[in-house]
Amino acid sequence: MKKQVVYQYDRITCRRKVVDKSKKMLRVRSKKLIFVAFLLASAIGIYVGQINGAEVKAASYTVHEGDTLWSISTQFVDKNADIRKFYYQIMEDNDIDRDAVIQPGQQLIIHF
Questions:
Q1: Residue limits of the LysM domain (predicted)?
Q2: Residue 93 to residue 103: CA distance in whole angstroms
Q3: Phi-psi category of 66—alpha, beta or left, where left has phi over 0 and alpha has psi -120 to 50?
Q4: Do residues 111 and 56 touch, judged by C-beta distance below 8 A?
Q5: Model pTM?
Q6: Are 73 and 84 in contact (CB under 8 A)?
Q7: Three-state secondary-structure class, residue 2
Q8: Can you give the pLDDT of all 112 residues of the chain as single tens digits?
Q9: Among 105, 72, 104, which residue's Cα sits nearest to residue 87?
Q10: What phi, psi does 103 have (nearest 5°)?
């Protein structure tokens, strides 16, 4: 196979140097791949940022006589969501132990 030769002029000294065309094509292809990878990473970053930036609503709830965490959870949970996860999220957000008893007048922060 015949080697193709391309002359490239050095901008500073105006000397001519021989550049192998296959190496030059490899450099161009590498630059294109890096550019495509950068665009892909940017698109993924924007998409993930939009998902994580979803609006989170919070409410303050005052516990009444006879309330349980389960009954409070049923009032705020989305009908398509798992109530058990919501229940445990309320416990975690308010630092409530598994064996703790909530008291009337206690303020709970509820994220939904």
A1: 59-110
A2: 16
A3: left
A4: yes
A5: 0.51
A6: no
A7: coil
A8: 555 555 565 566 555 555 566 777 777 788 888 999 988 988 888 877 666 555 667 889 999 999 999 999 999 888 888 999 999 999 999 999 988 899 999 999 998 7
A9: 72
A10: -115, 145
Query: Taking a C-beta distance cutoff of 8 angstroms, is the pair 93, 110 a contact?
Result: yes
Residue for token pair 């970053």: 45
Report d(CA 57, CA 33) in Å as an integer. Answer: 42
Asked if residue 63 lies in contact with residue 72, where contact means CB atoms within 8 angstroms, the answer is: yes
Question: What's the token pair of residue 29?
Answer: 């292809």
Helix (H, G, I), strand (E, B) or coil at 103: coil
The CATH code of domain 58-111 reads 3.10.350.10
